Amino acid sequence: xxxxxxxxxxxxxxxxxxxxxxxxxxxxxxxxxxxxxxxxxxxxxxxxxxxxxxxxxxxxxxxxxxxxxxxxxxxxxxxxxxxxxxxxxxxxxx
Length: 94
What we know:
Layout: E1 2-10, E2 22-29, H1 34-47, E3 50-60, H2 63-67, H3 69-74, H4 76-84, E4 86-90
Antiparallel strand pairs: 1-2, 1-3, 2-4
């Protein structure tokens, strides 16, 4: 699993985001390869209606943390990524 810190620009008007607004994200991708995980993160943001995607930080999650049920239970975003393959968290302030 990889965790990405990114920002992207809204391509259209969304529920809480105006068109052209830059928004920060944390993206969890449950994938084994960094390159593939980064491409998936960008694709998921594009599908959500964002362009001009900039990945700022990349972090691999240690396999022993993914194997620890207590860690997964304590982190909702990580649990969702393990169950569904990814999680995207959008933040209000940049």
